[in-house]
Amino acid sequence: MKKYAIIVFVLFTVFVFGQHKSALKITKLTGDFYVYETYKFYKNKPISANGIYLVTNEGVVMFDSPWDTTQALPLLDSIRKKHNKEVVMCIATHSHDDRTGSLGIYNQKGIKTFSTKQTDEICKINVEERASNLFEKDTFFKLGQYSFKTFYPGKGHTPDNIVIWFENEQILYGGCFVKSSQAKDLGNLSDANVLEWEKSINKVIQLFPKPKYIITGHQRWKSKKSLKHTLKLIENDIKESIQQIVSHT
Questions:
Q1: Which residue ranges does the record assign to the Metallo-beta-lactamase domain (predicted)?
Q2: Which pLDDT band, with edges at 50, 70 and 90, does 26 fall under?
Q3: Given 157, 160, 161, 237, which residue is catalytic?
Q4: pLDDT tens, 174-227?
């Protein structure tokens, strides 16, 4: 019976992914910027996660890593075939496994992996994959012809979430700190601080008022309204929490 159960599960997995989307999807954003989508099963449903990578003349920089380790190496292979370049750097934007899940594999491959010290401390406590290089403050990076900066807006989706800003291209990589315009709620709040998230989002809106592109951690990312939508979701969540408190007093 166990053998048949395994066969049924494998066939179901293949069927669902085949009906839903490819387990790995790469879409050109603009210029040398690409969005990659990987998937993981959660409650028997394939859930997508967005990351980005940037092709420079000194190699490819990946922002976040696939949470499904079975897609980590296929992603590297796809990038190599598509651009004839190797991934040389990977930066995780917070401690959840949809951002850090494949850091261990990339460390083994000799890719320079990065995270904040705050992210590393959380990963260490939770016995999760950790980056090999750490930074503490907002940091400016330059690789080849491109430069970008990490920015810590404050607590939000997690206490350690950062965003990436590409000044010349006006691209904001928000990761899971920024919710998709398609999102109906704030999603995973297990490590969230909703009250602080409101302040943090407003800070990002003030610093980066008119980005050309905003890449979110999940769902649809082709919208310039995702920052304001996130703020609206936060405000709705706070109102609901207040109403629940009032109704129980």
A1: 48-218
A2: very high
A3: 157
A4: 999 999 999 999 999 999 999 999 999 999 999 999 999 999 999 988 888 999
Q: What is the pLDDT of residue 244?
A: 73
Catalytic residue among 64, 68, 98, 237: 98
Domains of the chain, residue spans: 23-243
Question: Two tokens at 225?
Answer: 């309204």
83 is catalytic: no
The architecture that CATH gives domain 23-243 is 4-Layer Sandwich (3.60)
In the residue annotation, 94 being an active-site residue is answered as yes
pTM of the predicted structure, to 2 decimals: 0.88
* Contact between 180 and 221 (Cβ < 8 Å): yes
Is 229 an annotated catalytic residue? no
Among 94, 120, 160, 218, the one annotated catalytic = 94
Please check whether residue 83 is in contact with residue 105, taking contact to mean a CB–CB distance below 8 angstroms: no
